[in-house]
Every structure is written in C-alpha cells, then in structure tokens.
Write a structure and sequence with these properties.
By secondary structure, the chain is of the alpha/beta class. The protein folds into two domains: 158 residues, Lyase, Ornithine Decarboxylase, Chain A, domain 1; 235 residues, TIM Barrel, CATH 3.20.20.10. Strands 1, 3, 12, 13, 14, 15, 16, 17 and 18 form a nine-stranded mixed beta sheet that branches. An eight-stranded parallel β-barrel has the order 4-5-6-7-8-9-10-11. The protein has a two-stranded antiparallel ribbon with strand order 2-19. The protein is elongated, with a radius of gyration of 23 Å. The relative contact order is 0.18. The protein binds pyridoxal-5'-phosphate (PLP).
C-alpha cells in the first residue's frame, strides 16, 4: 500500500544544515484531499499543502500567454517539488539570484537556462556561476558591476548583459524601486559599454511585486525605449521582470490577458528589430495558488486566534505587509461541523514576540475554537521560503494534495473541484494512522 511521508517545508536552501524530520507520521493509504489529511494526521505542526497539478497548469497557462520566454524567479519558492511542477508546466528558464539558487537549478535541471538577475553580486558568486554552472546571463546596474563581471569571467566573450533600469515608484503592493536600477542616462551609458563587450545585451526592470496595473509595464517599456534611443545601440532582449498579481481576499486583479496585451502594446510601440526577444520573470503569479498552509488554533481570545505559525514562519507577508489570505476552518468530522456565520479574526503566531501578529482580518466561522485547523490559501509565493527557526518553531511539513486553490485569479484556468472523490477517499482511508519506522 502506498504510504505518505510528510516532507520538510524548511527551505531546501537550508536543508543541508537542518536535515529532514525523522519519524514523520505516515498513513496506510494515499491521501490527497486536505480535509482527509487533517482528519487523519491531526497535525500539531503547520503543513504546507502542495498542489502540483495547479502549479503545472498555472505555469502552462502563463507560458502559453506570454509572447516570449518565461523565467521563473526562484527566490519566490525554491522547493524542488514546486520547481519540478513548473518544469512540467513548460518552464525552462530560471531567474536565480544567489549561488545557492544557481546550484539548486543546475542540479535539478542540467539543461535549463539559468539567468543570474541580481544586479549586485559578490565576485566569487560570478566566478562560480560562470565557470562551474554555465551561467552566461547576468544583470547589472553600475559600471563597477560590469568591470567585476568582466574580471571574474576573465573577459568572457559570451556574456549576456542585462542593464537593470530604475523605475519611479509604481502602483505595486511591493515597491521595488529603491534598491536596484540605473537612471535613464546611466543605463544608456551602461548599455553602450555592454554592447562593446558582449554579443547579447538587454534591458530589464521590475515594476514591483503584486502589480495590479497593466499599464505599469507599458510605462516601464516606454522608459526602456528612452534608454535605447539615448544609447543609440540595438538590444537583443527586453526583460519585463516579474510583478504579475494574484487574487487575495478583497483584491481581484485584472485578467492575465490584460497584462499580456499591455506588454505586447508596449513592445510593439518600441518598434525594435524583429529578432529582439521578450522575457519576463514571474514569481508570485506562477506559484501563489499552488500551495496552502494548514495551521492549528492553540488558543482563542475574543477576535484573536493564537495559531502555530506566524510572521517568523510562513506567514511573513501577513505581518507588516498585512496581506490577507483566504481562510477556511477545518474541523474534524467527529466534531459538529460549524454553521456559524463568518467574522474577522486577527492572528498571533507561536513565538513570544508581540510583533508576531497578523491583523488580517481573516474571515472564519464565529465559533472557531482551540483545536480547530485553518487552511490559508495563496501561500505558494514568499511563504515557506521565508521561514526562520526563531524561538524554535521550525517544524513545518509538506505534502502533495489534489484540491483546487482557495482562490482563483482571473485569466488562469479554473481548477476542478471533486468533493465526491474526497468523500470516497475519506471512506476508504478510515482514518488509520501509524508511525513510520
Ligand atoms: C523577486 C523578483 C522577481 C519575481 O517577482 P514577483 O513579483 O514575485 O513576480 C523577478 N525578478 C527579480 C529580479 C526579482 O528580484
């Protein structure tokens, strides 16, 4: 009989030091529905429920819609099972931004193209990426970095050099305009300098994460046009970065095709030579719907719930950035199901820090109580990768499920629901647990 083993949800980039959990509980039969898993496992640790089919379908939809190459931004979720699902959905390019990410992608996908799109790299990281992992594409936003790239690659003649353009503060939820990027005149100088030493050059930018306004891409492309005009050189690639949004409670972005249309318009307006390629680097949009997090309520205090994960775990974005996530209560079937109306709750995480607070509000049945579980959706992006071991709370688990996402984002294929199959599964499993050897 098939067995389920929880895998660790600790970032694979850290697993080398933390190791895998021993004695993970296993169950007698393959269980693939979240409710059945919780019923069976009664997990006291947070559980990440991975939806490989959703991840693959989301990637496939994005790849089919974007008029160019789609690079997955690895930092968003470097979990190997996530990356495999994206690969199955057609992702062949990866935007890596650290030596550990470069190594991970190369180990998993020997033939994938890795693009090192971090504009500020240590000399050793460049040397290793170029000579040990076959990376050829690098981004930069200063003359210093260009010098460093040439020195560390021993003046390689086959570099792809991407000038990161600074953008004015935009409408995105996460503004990324402050840290990186060259202003137009500097970018034009850099573009010329890059053209002189490289057969492949481009411009890249990032409009900010969870960008709800398609026209932000067009404006950024206009600015790229100004750089190209001022530099007086041709580019080979225009990389419009990440930032593509997903739904959250109360936030429904414009459909994906509106973004694609805006990008196509912006690209056409630049009237670049026909051979010019278009790239993008989505993170959030590819993975957010593909993972949910199941937490348990430890204590209720009025409208506040103390739960077993928090801002030092996978719920970092629910803290200061105050993201709200779709929530639903899971109460094992032996207890009476709730008919209570929903109300808003705030969360406290498990650590002793009072900053471990998530304002929400998260909508849940009014009678929720200690011992109930909560499934939080849209946590595939910037969730488990931000976990820390602060205060000793680092025992999160990972398991594959077949449920649909808690929220759909307009323009992506709607996943199918299958309540009958889950009911059947619950019956066949009989909720017997055992300990793995
Ligand atoms: C983080 C990042 C991305 C991904 O951004 P999303 O908003 O998650 O799509 C893409 N490119 C670069 C350079 C990044 O730093």
């Amino acid at each position: 009989m098939a067995q389920i083993r929880f895998r660790s949800a600790v970032s694979p980039l850290r697993r080398g030091t933390t190791g895998f959990r021993r004695n993970a509980p296993a169950v007698r039969k393959q269980i693939t529905c979240v409710d059945n898993l919780i019923e069976t496992m009664r997990p006291a640790d947070p559980v990440h429920c991975l939806r490989p089919a959703v991840l693959s379908a989301t990637a496939a939809r994005f790849v089919a819609s974007f008029p160019g190459d789609v690079l997955y931004a690895v930092k968003c979720n470097p979990e190997p099972a996530v990356m495999r699902a994206l690969y199955e959905g057609g992702i062949r390019h990866f935007d890596a931004a650290s030596p550990a990410e470069v190594r991970l992608v190369r180990q998993m996908f020997p033939n994938a193209e890795i693009h090192y799109m971090h504009p500020v790299k240590s000399p050793g990281a460049i040397h290793q990426a170029y000579f040990d992992y076959g990376v050829r594409d690098f981004s930069l936003d200063s003359a210093e970095e260009l010098e460093k790239l040439l020195e560390q690659t021993e003046n390689a003649g086959d570099l792809g050099l991407f000038i990161r353009l600074a953008l004015p503060k935009g409408p995105a939820v996460y503004d990324l305009s402050g840290k990186f990027g060259a202003a137009v005149t500097d970018a034009a100088d850099l573009l010329r300098a890059a053209r002189a030493v490289s057969p492949k050059i481009g411009i890249c930018f990032h409009v900010g994460s969870q960008c709800l306004d398609p026209s932000a891409y067009e404006r950024a492309m206009d600015l790229a046009g100004a750089v190209i005009a001022q530099a007086g050189v041709e580019i080979d690639v225009l990389d419009v970065g990440g930032g593509f949004p997903v739904s959250y409670p109360g936030v429904t972005p414009p459909p994906l095709d509106d973004f694609m249309a805006a990008i196509a318009r912006g690209f056409a307006k630049l009237a670049l030579p026909a051979r010019t390629r278009l790239w993008c680097e989505p993170g959030r949009a590819l993975v957010a719907p593909g993972v949910s997090l199941v937490v348990q309520v430890i204590k209720r205090r009025g409208h506040e719930l103390f739960i077993n994960d928090g801002v030092y775990g996978s719920l970092s974005d629910a803290g200061v950035p105050a993201f709200r996530f779709p929530a639903r209560m899971i109460r094992p079937t032996q207890a009476a199901a709730s008919e209570a109306p929903e109300q808003g709750f705030a969360f406290y995480g498990p650590t002793c820090d009072s900053a471990d607070h998530m304002a929400g509000p998260f909508m849940l049945p009014a009678d929720i109580r200690a011992g109930d579980w909560i499934e939080l959706g849209q946590l595939g992006a910037y969730g488990s990768c931000l976990r820390t071991a602060f205060n000793g709370f680092d025992n999160a688990r990972l398991i594959d499920v077949t449920d649909r996402p808690l929220l759909e984002t307009p323009g992506y294929l709607e996943a199918e629901d299958h309540p009958e199959r889950c009911a059947e599964e619950a019956q066949s499993v009989g909720y017997i647990t055992e300990r793995a050897a």
